[in-house]
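Support request, please re-run this one:
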Amino acid sequence: MTAGVGNTSDALREAALSKKVYISPPEGVPIPFAIAGLGARLYAQVVDLLLTQLLLLLVVLVLLALFGGGPYLWIVWSLGYFFLRVPYYVLAEIAWNGATLGKRLSGLRVIDAGGGPLTIHAITVRNLLKEAEVFFPGALALGIGGLDGWVQWVAVAWICLAIAIPATNRRRQRLGDMIAGTIVILRPQAVLLPDAAVHRQGARPAGHEAFGFSSAQLDHYGAYELQTLEGLVRQNDDHLARGTRPSIQVQKEIEAVSAAIRTKIAYGVQIGTHDHARFLSDFYRAQRRYLEEKQLLGEARADKFHASRKEAGS
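Re-run finished. Output below.
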């Protein structure tokens, strides 16, 4: 299994593809994500700004048609831009699971940096702080020529700091992301490759696994977790194909992942010391079939937080 990105603006993403971050969920092994580059984020920001400006312009035109012109329109424009912009970013990222329209077009998404679900609190915090980090420095940059003395130097320092924080830290996080515990990534698209277990020498036919799993047990994970598990299954199968034993480190990793999965899905059957690899292979095959069946029914599971997001949206 591999992760790819969407079809939008490859030129904007090229610089970010070489930079990856590994997010460790509460169970399992770390999952790699490509960090969003500053160019792609700037593109998304411009799209969102144009959209909010257009919405505000429509509001002003409606007021102009109903009540005529006057100084109040400038006040509406100044205040309305803030009171329209903040709800737009917050509500869009809540509705689209970490993406505004601009982020969707540029293939970006906000995720929880700790591997948990993205919360409304984190979305609100990161977008409120965006006012001080992005829009206020932007306004200063546009009007810096009209500032005098030390105020101009303070404005320059603020602008430099706002640019330096995301440009210099490894995860490209601005201050709002650090405080909210979020990170902006290139949105991966999980693609199931031909079943790893099918190509293993001596593999059992589908439906003849030694370990069985209920649909409730298979409902805990999604395609991203299956991608990580596939790496272990393929690694173990490569050793079997060559007639060699996996290294001690690989064996320990297999045992640790097996234990984490059995705990997560409440698998009550005890397994032998040498059965961890077979358990993972059988779980991989069963989980894969389950996800493919769900996909055929129009219910694709991107990750293990699918169920909680579905409940929150209902």
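Confidence is low (pLDDT under 50) at residues 1-18, 190-208, 296-305. The beta strands are 2-5, 20-23, 31-34, 108-112, 182-186, 188-191.
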